[in-house]
Amino acid sequence: MNIRDFEYLVALAEHKHFRKAAEACFVSQPTLSGQIKKLEDELGSPLLERSSRRVLFTDSGLQLIEQAKTILREVKVFKEMAKEQTGEMSGPMNIGFIPTVGPYLLPKIVPAIKEQFGELELFLHEAQTHQLVQQLEDGKLDCLVLASVEETAPFKEIEVYEEPMSIAVPCDHEWASLAELDMLELNGKTVLALGDGHCLRDQALGFCFAAGAKDDERFKATSLETLRNMVAAGAGITLLPELSLPKEKQKDGVCYIKAVNPIPTRSIVLAYRPGSPLRNRFEQLAEFIQSLL
């Protein structure tokens, strides 16, 4: 058996479909199926229930999957330790971003990172916080750039940016001409928010609820751009993080007002596994992103 066999086994456990697992491993379905069967023969124990039309693992198969995941994580740490010996910012780095950060932060930092660290090969992944956290735990990602929340507490966090939020209103709104707005003015108002699963939803609504506002339960956006377009259409008001704001105070039917008392903020951090030997690289990367922002 070899490391690749463990990768096939774990991929099959995650996708529960031979074709999808094969695609994830960049091999043909017969190749993956053949290697799984070869592994079973070598172990002398069935890993799958062959009589089922679905991918169902035997009890011994389920136990071996967890061990395979552990082995793959250790192999990754071994490779990371070897990379760290060079002390250079080079080679592949898999970084996860949440949807309310990635589209706005990446254009600001990726060109500069490539110029500063020419030997660093970036692989960028976008997903919601709970998905990124799981991928970081499983060793599929090296680090995350996201808002610090309870789910990221088990990881080491390097603060990158304290990001304020502004109030977004339609340009014909009574507040549109204001330079800033006391959050208490939201008392009794209804605000638009992202849907469940977005950590920014809870963060923004926390400030709104504290001010006495309520959530518009008739609508939950899938992205910040959907929220922005709903505001432009006159459907309501919302809070938007600074990185997503245009340079202009008013643009495309939306007016942005600085929120005060308190200033609603979220902490953008670079998170990584406590035992990762690439700590020095993450610190360099976080410091460089800080300098750009």
UniProtKB/TrEMBL annotation:
Annotated family: Belongs to the LysR transcriptional regulatory family.
Signal peptide: none
Pfam families per record: HTH_1, LysR_substrate
InterPro entries linked: LysR_HTH_N, LysR_subst-bd, WH-like_DNA-bd_sf, WH_DNA-bd_sf
Keyword Transcription regulation: yes
The name this protein goes by in its record: Hydrogen peroxide-inducible genes activator
Top-level taxon in the UniProt lineage: Bacteria
Keyword list, A-Z: Activator, DNA-binding, Transcription, Transcription regulation
Lineage: Bacteria, Pseudomonadati, Pseudomonadota, Gammaproteobacteria, Vibrionales
HTH lysR-type domain ranges (all copies): 1-58
Organism this protein belongs to: Vibrio marisflavi CECT 7928
